[in-house]
Design goal:
67 residues, mainly alpha, 84% helix
Length: 67
């Protein structure tokens, strides 16, 4: 019985360590999903000619560099 209890406690400690290593994992997954969704939205807008990404980036670079 004592061996069983010791095994249980060792496994429980290992599971707690593994859970602590995954802190922030959910946040990282949400950020990844947001980036993918934004990329898909930009691709759809670009394909529908609703937005000119080249012009947007050119304008932004010119406003920063003063050109």
């Amino acid at each position: 019985m004592q061996k069983l209890i010791m095994t249980y406690l060792m496994l429980q400690a290992h599971l707690l360590e593994a859970r602590d290593d995954e802190k922030g994992q959910g946040t990282l997954e949400y950020v990844g999903m947001i980036i993918v969704a934004a990329g898909i939205a930009l691709a759809v807008l670009q394909a529908a000619d609703a937005i000119d990404l080249g012009g947007v980036f050119t304008t932004a670079v010119n406003s920063v560099t003063g050109g």
